[in-house]
Amino acid sequence: MPTSLLILSDTHIPSRAKTLPEDLWSAVESADIVVHAGDWTDIAFFEELHERSRRLVGCYGNNDGDALRTRLPLVAREEIEGLRFAVVHETGAKTGREQRMDREFPDTDVLVFGHSHIPWDTVTGAGMRLLNPGSPTDRRRQPHCSYLTATVDGHRLDVELHLLPVRT
């Protein structure tokens, strides 16, 4: 039976938005696993996401204070349908990222990361999939806010980027 994932990062709630868009909350509630790659910024949002998710996997980011850092790891690791996932906030500069991540995460099939607010989906030389969902609340220099959904079925991973309407 396939496992559905909702992949988020850099929500920055409540500084960038008061909450997630309602459609995204619906996606949270229907996903088998919600993955968050850090920069939650508010423990209350973490608690709400934890409550509304069937299962939550996440790490802390550079903007997360002590309350979140005591509840979350720097790197979260989870095996899902036989695929080894790691979730980390920062991976450094985009130049050389694939080679660096192959060295730093040799026992990982899928690495989810955040920090840049820029969607990213590549495969490293060693075959590791690198995913960044962007941000659903702070598009920065991107044309849209974004998040990812994925389906894991055995060792197969299908990923879809979702672009959110620009808020005015």
Automatic annotation (TrEMBL):
The lineage of its organism: Bacteria, Bacillati, Actinomycetota, Actinomycetes, Micrococcales. It comes from Arthrobacter crusticola. GO terms for molecular function: hydrolase activity; metal ion binding. The keyword Metal-binding applies. It is an enzyme of class 3 (hydrolase). InterPro entries: Calcineurin-like_PHP_lpxH, Metallo-depent_PP-like, Phosphodiesterase_MJ0936/Vps29. Its cofactor is a divalent metal cation. Its EC number is 3.1.4.-. This is Phosphoesterase. Keywords: Metal-binding. Belongs to the metallophosphoesterase superfamily. YfcE family. Pfam families: Metallophos_2. Residues 5-153 form the Calcineurin-like phosphoesterase domain.
